[in-house]
Amino acid sequence: MLLQNILISRLLLGGSAFTARNGGRQSSRLIHHQNKMAMNAASSDEDSGNYKLAQDPSELFDIYPAPPTKAHFNAIIGPDWGDDFFPAPQPTGKVKKRSQVHKDGDWHRSMHLWIYQSDLANDNVRVLLQRRSPYKDTHPNMLDVSCAGHVNAGDDILETTMREMEEELGGNGNIKGRYSLEDVNNSRMFTVTSAIEGETEKHGKYICREYQDVFILKWKADAPMESHDFAPMAKEEVSGFDIIDGQELILKLRKGDEELVPRSGQYIDALAKVFGC
Ligand SMILES: *[C@@H]1O[C@H](CO)[C@@H](O)[C@H](O)[C@H]1NC(C)=O
């Protein structure tokens, strides 16, 4: 059922001209098809307004030092990384625009929030995924973590997470007041590094290198979590939601499923551990 939904959305929305080197695999035929679709999608003035709504290229990000070695580029930060990185990486003091950061491959900071609900009957969890809009500069149209966002220069990671959660998930009023800052703080699990290169028709080549603070938050509700519980404030950022069972999600991430934004082995292992699957 889920797979059918995925295939339909891919056809309706076109796809990314995405070429990840981080475990993502797509056949060249598919990339060719998606390039054509993306070109068609990027042709009108209305679309160019949508791209501006999907991200602001002039946003400013703090720049962080690169991890100690390349072996640390897709890994979880631990105490052995030293005081500059653990428990939290320290910024260099340099600030740059989003558009430049993704061209130059500077290390910056983002937050990832996974929302899940226990599925006790099946000894599993159900996990909320968002579908990225066709207008995003990285990974357009792909399924991803429930909610994610860059941390703007000088901003606090917890405040950013509260704000992104409302912006990306709470357009129907369902998030406001549901979680406290302390809830979010308690759901903070680990920080991973992620170095990904790709290309989109609209934005060209990008290099995205991030320290990602990962939050894993239990959905506060008695009723089963449904994708219509969530709505973005701006459809230009998020085009929809899916709910997937945890074991299936982990399996798909490990196989480098072409529909999911790829994650490193260490990230997937840590996620599986928290979900207990
Ligand atoms: C978040 O939690 C940590 C402990 O894990 C604590 O040291 C810190 O003060 C908390 N921050 C806030 C804003 O509550």
Automatic annotation (TrEMBL):
Annotated signal sequence range: 1-17
Top EC class of this enzyme: isomerase
Enzyme Commission number(s) from the entry: 5.3.3.2
Annotated CDD domains: NUDIX_Hydrolase (cd04692)
Gene Ontology terms for molecular function: isopentenyl-diphosphate delta-isomerase activity
Biological process annotations from GO: isopentenyl diphosphate biosynthetic process
Domain of life of the native organism: Eukaryota
Gene3D superfamilies, per the entry: Nucleoside Triphosphate Pyrophosphohydrolase
Keywords attached to this entry: Isomerase, Signal
A single Gene Ontology CC term: cytoplasm
Pfam families found in the cross-reference section: NUDIX
Domain Nudix hydrolase: 106-266
Protein name as it appears in the record: Isopentenyl-diphosphate delta-isomerase
Record organism: Skeletonema marinoi
